[in-house]
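Agenda item 2: coenzyme A complex prediction
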Amino acid sequence: MDGMNNGLEGVVVAETRLSDVDGARGRLVLRGHAVEELAHTATFEDVCALFLDVTPAQARERLGAARVAAHARLPAYSDDVEPMDALRAALARPGPDDVWSCIAEVALVTSQLASKRRAPLAPDARAAHAHDVLRMSGVDTSDAHVRALDAYFVTVVDHGMNASTFAARVVASMGSDLRSCVVAGIGALKGPLHGGAPGPVLDMLDAIASTPDVPPSEWLLRELAAGRRIMGMGHRVYRVRDPRAEVLERVCASLQGARLELGRVVEREAERLLAERHPGRALKANVELFTALLLDALGFARASFTSLFACARVVGWCAHVGEQRQTGRLIRPASRYVG
Ligand code: COA
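Presented output:
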């Protein structure tokens, strides 16, 4: 029982062909492609094809059909339900236990709650997935917005053995069904230290913008003095700036209305203050800082940010579940009894 690893940092629990995170150099590879390359060229369907071993045309057809089928079976969620609670409830219902149904259900519930409609809009089976998510959510579907949402989905589709993927793989390793694995992923993603960060990032940016007499550095210092973390900063694996922050910053620059300048100032000041407080630990911007600015510029309310993340990451979870089933071993760590 020696060698306890509290938090499993650096522990390798599986081999994967899906993605690779190089935390020291700040590189993310998705199915052999650098995230910088893929995010600016691929669509959601392209990345589904890469992760789920189909062609992009097959992915588009299956996604369209699955959205229509999911629309027919899902209940309408009332808009006072938290989107992540609705996602968890939707996926926990008995339903088809296949990848496309899971992806479609996450997209539909997210869009319905984003749109604030009691009766969800019907999907368009022929539309591209990102376009349909924007349309069903009731936000602008211009080409620039579709391109930006595709880039976001591609950027966050998978990320090594992140917590929600690990949760999904643990459940898969017990021989459980796919929907149970996805529900586990949703539960982990919901946490503010994982996918729940971009909403609070936007709260922070709004608070800084609405107090022009308090310089950003002063505002951040007060947060740190109160023992709170600066959202959108720091990462368990990256010791340099998260490469996804770079990608999404560039996407934000292509969108009208993205409050990029504010984000950059906050990043610079937060990085400086965190370096003073933690000289031995590089704490730089992570993906959530620019996710918040991007999704805000697309017209989404912050309550939907985490479920939009799930719209993409569900592809990663499903691909990892497939891999775990094929090559993985039952995941069962141990604990040290101190009682
Ligand atoms: N703001 C202030 N302090 C932070 C910080 C942040 N964003 N991130 C880390 N720290 C501090 C920790 O409190 C810790 O301090 P201590 O040694 O005095 O206890 C120290 O830096 C080292 O933290 P670290 O080991 O790197 O954190 P972790 O690996 O356990 O956590 C995160 C990683 C991402 C959860 C953490 O950086 C965080 O909470 N960030 C804010 C939330 C966020 O943006 N999440 C999205 C992740 S993609």
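Discussion summary: Residues 193, 197, 229-236, 274, 278, 281, 283, 286-288 surround coenzyme A (CB under 6 Å).
Owner for follow-up: CH.
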